[in-house]
Amino acid sequence: MVLGRGLDSLIPKKKFTLPQEKEERVLEIPVEKIRSNPYQPRSIFDEQRLKELVDSIKENGILQPLVVTEISDNLYELIAGERRLRAAKILNLKTVPAIVRSAEKSKKLELSLIENIQRQDLNPMERARAYQRLMSEFNLTQEEIAKRVGKARASVANTLRLLSLPEIIQKAIEEERITEGHAKVLLSLDSPEKQEAMLHRILGLGLTVRETEMIVRNQQPKKIVYDPKIQDWEKKLSEVFGTKIKINKTGKHGKIIIEFYNDEEMEKIILKLISG
Fold first, then answer.
1. Distance between CA 97 and CA 101 in Å, rounded?
2. Best label site of 103, 134, 210, 228, fewest CB within 10 Å?
3. What does the alpha-carbon distance between residue 119 and residue 130 come to, in Å, rounded to a whole number?
C-alpha cells in the first residue's frame, strides 16, 4: 500500500517548483508536539481508509515522513500528513518521522492546499473550496492554479463551478451520494429549483450519469428554426379563419393546428372547411 507520495512527486517539477530550504531535516518528533494544520482543506476522512492506514502503520511503520514547520521551540504545525498523524494518535505512537520545513504563514497555506489537492481521496467539493481559497487568498488565476496542481485549466474551471450548486447538492457530492459527473449534468439546468428536483430524481431512482444526461437533454427546450415560407402560410390561414394557425412540419409530414376558444368559433371553422 502506498501511504504517501510526498510533495516532490505530487507536483510537476517542470511546471512548478516549491521553494526548498538549503537543507531539510528529518526528525523523530513527539506526536504531542505536532498540531493539526488549521488550513487543512479536507473536511471528511474516510474511516475505512483510515483504519487500513492504521493497520499498515502497525505492520510496517510510517513509510513516508510527515511535513511540518516549527512554530516555536519544540512545537510544530502540520503542513502535510493529516491522516498519518491521526493514525499515529490512534496507535498511541510516541514519535513520528517528519521533515521540518521552514515556511511563512501564507506559504504554509499554499503548501497544504496544493499537497492535499493532489490526493485521490479529496472529494470534489473540497477541491473546489481549495481552488477558491487559492484564488481569493493568493489572487491566483485559474490558469495559475492549473499549473501549480498539474491539471488542465478546464478541469479547474469545472470543479469551481460546483460551488454555484445549491447547498443540498454540494452536500450530496461530499457524502458520495452522487458523483461529480452527476453534478456536471445538474449544472446544465437553468435554475436551483430544477437542479434540486433532478437531484431527488437521481437519488430516488438511482440514476446513472448517462441516464441523467438523457433525461436532462429531453427536458431542455429544443431550438426551433422557423421557415419563412411556413410562417407566411400560417399568417394567410389565420386571416382566412380569423384565429391562430400553427403548422408543425417534420420532413414531408406534419400537422396544421387551428385554435378556437368556444363552441361557436369551432362551428364556424368547421363550416368554412366543409364549404371549401
1. 13
2. 228
3. 12
Q: By C-alpha distance, which of 33, 11, 146 is closest to 88?
A: 33
What the block records as the C-alpha cell of 134 is: 487559492
66-72 β-sheet, strand order: 25-30, 95-100, 66-72, 75-80, 34-35
Using CA atoms, how far apart are residues 268 and 237, in angstroms rounded to an integer?
Answer: 14
Strand partners, 248: 255
pLDDT for residue 159: 93
Query: Comparing C-alpha atoms, which of 150, 151, 155 is closest to residue 14?
Result: 150
* Grid cell digits, residue 164: 454555484
Residues 6+ apart with CB under 8 A from 185: 198, 209, 212, 213, 216
Give the chain's domains with CATH numbers.
Answer: 24-103 (3.90.1530.10), 179-221 (no CATH), 228-275 (no CATH)
Distance from chain centroid for Cα 26: 36
Is residue 198 within 8 A of residue 216, CB to CB? The reply is yes
User: How many Cα atoms within 13 Å fall on the side-chain side of residue 77?
Assistant: 17
- What is the pTM assigned to this prediction? 0.51
**Angle at the Cα of 162 from the Cα atoms of 156 and 166, rounded to 5 degrees:** 165
Mean pLDDT, 10 residues at a time, over the chain (276 residues)?
40 39 70 79 69 86 85 82 88 90 64 66 84 81 86 90 95 93 94 94 93 86 72 85 83 84 83 81
**Active site members:** 82
Kind and range of the H or E run holding 5: none
Nearest Cα neighbor of 79 from 52, 50, 53, 116 is: 116
> Grid coordinates representing 119?
490526493
- Residues recorded for the chain: 276
pLDDT at position 266 is 86
Give residue 270's identity as a one-letter amino acid code: I
Q: Helices then strands (H, E): number in the chain?
A: 13, 7
